[in-house]
Amino acid sequence: MITVRNLTKVYQVPIKGKSFLSDIFNRQYQENVALNKISFEIAEDELVGFIGPNGAGKTTTLKILAGILYPTAGQVSVVGYTPFEKKAAFLRQISFIAGQRNQLIWDLPVIDSFYLNKEIYQISNPDFNKRIDELSSLLNCRHLLNKPVKMLSLGERMKMELIAALIHQPKIIFFDEPTIGLDIFSQETIRHFIKNYQKNYRATIVLTSHYLEDVKRMAKRLIIIDKGKIIYDGSLKRILQEYSKGKKVSLFLENEAKPELIYAIGRPVTYEYPKVVFFIKKEDLPEKIKLITKTLPFTDLTVEDESIERIIKNFFKNQ
Ligand SMILES: Nc1ncnc2c1ncn2[C@@H]1O[C@H](COP(=O)(O)OP(=O)(O)O)[C@@H](O)[C@H]1O
Ligand SMILES: [Mg+2]
Predict the structure, then answer these.
(1) Is the preceding omega at residue 274 within 30 degrees of 0, hence cis?
(2) Is the C or the N end of the chain the one with fewer CB within 10 Å?
């Protein structure tokens, strides 16, 4: 579905000269290598999480895949097309959705922007009505269709962006930070929606996010990029298992315990009676849990995975 071979992107960035005139007549450029020969393949029906620090090259990659940017070198093929040729048949099958970009018309009711896309993609009336109906009920936002865009909250606007971008039922979707800036409830709705959309339409999805929770909830496969190079491409599960160092164990104590009993388990991450939290290494877990049950009187005990943020940090430290 998507094939990328030795993809390289170099931005030419003008250097500010000594004066305005030297800037105009003798402009100097600096080369900024955003992508350095990256290669990967994505099969039909996959939902891939694409992560990495700020400036790693995620947006650049997605824009090249969507035909918005020209590559400097390398081969890119998406559903058999070369994206930057922007053939109509290609554009009809893809969508690029950025959390920060706005394709809706600010002053007009949302539905008018949808009508515009209906014309662009030449969608028939029955199809159009059916899709609006379906998408807006999935996103629980039917009541917003006639409101001007400027009256919507950020979360509501993102839902509308999704409808606008999906109304032509693309087979391939590039999401660039779709949940950025949203409150956790809207984030959850959008995650849920994207996951279901992928399942129902067997769409191929590449998703970038700096909320690792997004990726954890949605993707099975993870590509990690850093400074324009791919440093991991594989299953999310594997990286979580390999780079997770331990678990968070929280207790609610029945009564205040002697410090030596607490410290026998380990130095607590936090201790505010009645709650005490330990971080226990994977290999010590069985033994420490046994010790806890034997020596500490608790009313509740929970064992949680390390946060995905921590795990990815561990992974980066290992590079
Ligand atoms: N239009 C541009 N002109 C010059 N440099 C750019 C431009 N867009 C991005 N870059 C640079 O390319 C690199 C990758 O950027 P980007 O793809 O936006 O990263 P990410 O989305 O992972 O944060 C960064 O060093 C960034 O500063
Ligand atoms: Mg970006």
Answers:
(1) yes
(2) C
pLDDT at res. 276 = 95
Asked if the domains 2-241 and 246-318 are classified in one and the same CATH topology, the answer is no
pLDDT reported for residue 309: 83
Q: Which CATH architecture has domain 246-318?
A: 2-Layer Sandwich (3.30)
Q: Tell me, what's the pLDDT at 171?
A: 95
Structure confidence at residue 213 (pLDDT): 84
Residues less than 5 Å from ion ligand 2, measured at CB: 58-59
pLDDT at 319: 82
For ligand 1, say whether the CB of 30 is within 6 Å of any of its atoms.
Answer: no
Fold annotation for 2-241: Rossmann fold (3.40.50)
52 lines ligand 1 (CB under 6 A): yes
Residues 6+ apart with CB under 8 A from 214: 49, 178, 179, 187, 191, 207
Mutate to test the pocket of ligand 1, among 7, 9, 10, 32 (most ligand atoms within 8 A of CB): 32
Beta strands in 19-171 (DSSP E): 28-42, 47-51, 73-78, 94-98
**pTM assigned to the model:** 0.86
Low-confidence ranges of the chain (pLDDT < 70): 101
CB of 64 within 6 A of ligand 1: the answer is no
